[in-house]
Write a structure and sequence with these properties.
By secondary structure, the chain is α+β, with helices and mostly antiparallel strands. It has a single domain, classed as Peptide deformylase (Peptide Deformylase), CATH 3.90.45. The chain is built from three helices and seven strands. Strand 6 and strand 7 form a beta hairpin. It is globular, with a radius of gyration of 16 Å. The structure holds nickel (II) ion. Nickel (II) ion binds next to helix 2.
Length: 172
């Protein structure tokens, strides 16, 4: 197991749609363990393969809901959004690839995602609340989309300005 380096905004891999996972082998299972370890280390609730530099359709989540209901650890291989409610929900979002940035993002309130597990078995996840939001956020990563793409152009401009400033400060 290893903690992988998280890629930040500006890294091209975050903008490339991931390729379908085709090998359900020990390599995939090791990668899943690394994704979890990296996500927990960074105190995130979801992490997608492109965020550690791998252009693959694979993500992990561990979401504890506001109501305390625990969806548990989820591994989604080649996930697809099969249903998304017309009813939306607006809440604050952040991303491990854009540390320090947060903004209100409108998402579908309920979603159904179909995927396979690391053994290649089909799974279906129905969710609302925080898990529905996290699922949409992670699936976006697999298409090269970041949450800053889901806000108004003005808000995006402000976020990018803040990001640029934080990067300059980091460089000293
Ligand atoms: Ni993210």
């Amino acid at each position: 197991m290893a903690i992988r380096e998280i890629r930040y905004l500006g890294d091209e891999v975050l903008r490339v749609p991931g390729e379908a996972v085709s090998e359900f082998d020990d390599g995939l299972r090791a990668l899943v363990r690394d994704l979890f370890e990296t996500m927990y280390h960074a105190e995130g609730i979801g992490l997608a393969a492109p965020q550690i530099g791998l252009s693959l359709r694979l993500c992990v989540l561990d979401v504890q809901d506001e109501e305390g209901s625990d969806a548990g650890r989820l591994v989604l291989v080649n996930p697809e959004l099969v249903r998304a409610s017309r009813q939306t929900d607006k809440s604050t979002e952040g991303c491990l690839s854009l540390p320090g940035l947060e903004e209100l993002v409108t998402r579908s309130a309920r979603v159904t995602v179909r995927a396979t597990d690391p053994e290649g078995e089909s799974i279906e996840v129905e969710a609302d609340g925080l898990l529905a939001r996290a699922l949409q956020h992670e699936l976006d990563h697999l298409d090269g989309i970041l949450f800053i793409d889901r806000v108004s152009p003005l808000k995006r401009k402000m976020l990018l300005k803040k990001w640029k400033k934080s990067q300059e400060e980091d460089r000293g």
